[in-house]
Amino acid sequence: MSSLLEVTSISVSFDGFKAINNLSFEIGGQELRAIIGPNGAGKTTFMDIVTGKTRPDEGRVRFGEPQLDLLRLSESQIARAGIGRKFQRPTVFEAQSVRDNLLMALSNDRLPFAVLGYRETPRDDERVRALATEIGLSGELGRKAGELSHGQKQWLEIGMLLAQDPKLLLVDEPAAGMTLGEREHTTDLLRRAAETRAVVVVEHDMEFVRRLDCKVTVLHEGSVLAEGTLDHVTANSDVIDVYLGR
Ligand SMILES: Nc1ncnc2c1ncn2[C@@H]1O[C@H](COP(=O)(O)OP(=O)(O)OP(=O)(O)O)[C@@H](O)[C@H]1O
Description:
Layout: E1 5-14, E2 17-27, E3 32-36, H1 43-50, E4 58-63, E5 68-69, H2 75-80, E6 83-86, H3 98-105, H4 122-135, H5 150-163, E7 168-172, H6 180-193, E8 198-202, H7 206-212, E9 215-220, E10 223-228, H8 230-234, H9 237-244
Parallel strand pairs: 3-8, 3-9, 6-7, 7-8
Antiparallel strand pairs: 1-2, 1-4, 4-5, 9-10
The protein binds adenosine-5'-triphosphate (ATP).
Pfam family, one: ABC_tran
InterPro entries: AAA+_ATPase, ABC_AA/LPS_Transport, ABC_transporter-like_ATP-bd, ABC_transptr_urea_ATP-bd_UrtD, P-loop_NTPase
Protein name: Urea ABC transporter ATP-binding protein UrtD
């Protein structure tokens, strides 16, 4: 089976410091993957390269079928090609209802204020309800997003990204600041999302990664140090050295 995303031998330096060093990475179309690694391992820079925010000095980044060369596309073209990114802090429209947040997200180019003049179709309503069910916020559709808990805001933002139906979803530290119950719900949500798309989760919390129950890629000094199940990578002596030597 061919990969959805193929990153081959990328490197990038900042002022002579190699933040990403000959890194290769592949993920299939319906796969959940966790990326772990100590601070400064290059996790954020890797996601910045995939989303077009940072350009590598060397290497290739190919995506989709037919394959697109992401290094030739702008950040917005990459987003439109089907790569969604969730940053660590939730960024929802706090003064709008959960329902309106999801509705706005259904179309990439629908500006927040344009929703006022926008006529909603029965199909949109159906989709908003389905998304709300998927993220566990069916009972909160009429509430202002600003009134939601931290975890609920994170789910709403994931729902807003799912509304755009990305082929690849990149999620940065979703578990941070969440209660145990919220973490469990988030794991279920991400696992379900990965049944119909690729999902990459960058996470420091090992318990959360264990619950994701997926292949893990360990980054260190800008390269892949190990890859496999969490048990496999945590038994790797290089990985143990890197984590104990922090
Ligand atoms: N724009 C930049 N200019 C200079 N150095 C940078 C820049 N971006 C990242 N770096 C450096 O590159 C290295 C990798 O950083 P990156 O943020 O990708 O690591 P990370 O694995 O995401 O770390 P963390 O877990 O702390 O978020 C770090 O040493 C960082 O200081």
